[in-house]
From TrEMBL:
One of its GO terms (cellular component) is cytoplasm. The keyword Metal-binding applies. It comes from Oceaniferula spumae. Signal peptide: none annotated. This is Endoribonuclease YbeY. The lineage of its organism: Bacteria, Pseudomonadati, Verrucomicrobiota, Verrucomicrobiia, Verrucomicrobiales. Its cofactor is Zn(2+). InterPro entries: MetalPrtase_cat_dom_sf_prd, YbeY, YbeY_CS. Its EC number is 3.1.-.-. The gene is ybeY.
Length: 148
């Protein structure tokens, strides 16, 4: 079995205060999620299996909207953007609003986005209905295993 990549989570926003303890909790849960995510990887060539480290940046809507436009040519904020080289951007402001809309605690919604990004690195895509359904299933299943 290949060694698991490290996970580093950085708070690069000031819109919503996050404690160091919460960041450490996200990191611990992400490390626990990695074996489950690798179990459902879509192939041995997934970038997650090749990485030494995954960097998760917690950002505000303005920052993620900028990344969304510059790299995907799509205007506006989104929840999570994943790059194959092991970089995941998560919008805490979107997590706050979407969490309220879907009845999830803010922290749980952020963890869901982190898992979503890791699943993308494991080769999952959500551009089709079947791909989105598979990702939804796996992220909820893994979230239940690592986040209470």
């Amino acid at each position: 079995m290949l060694p698991l990549p490290g996970i580093a989570i950085y708070n690069h926003q000031q819109a919503i205060p996050l404690s160091d303890e919460l960041i450490e909790l996200f990191e611990s849960a992400a490390v626990l999620a990695l074996p489950h995510i690798l179990e459902v990887a879509t192939g041995p060539g997934s970038s997650l299996a090749q990485l030494d480290e995954v960097e998760v940046s917690l950002v505000d809507d303005e920052t993620i909207a900028d990344v969304h436009l510059r790299f995907m040519d799509i205007p506006g904020a989104t929840d999570v953007i994943t790059f194959d080289h092991g970089e995941i951007h998560v919008s805490v402001e979107t997590a706050s609003s979407q969490g309220q809309e879907f009845g999830n605690a803010f922290e749980r919604e952020i963890m869901l986005y982190i898992i979503h990004g890791l699943l993308h690195l494991a080769g999952h895509e959500d551009a089709t209905d079947s791909g989105q359904a598979a990702m939804d299933y796996h992220q909820q299943d893994i979230l239940e295993k690592v986040w209470q």
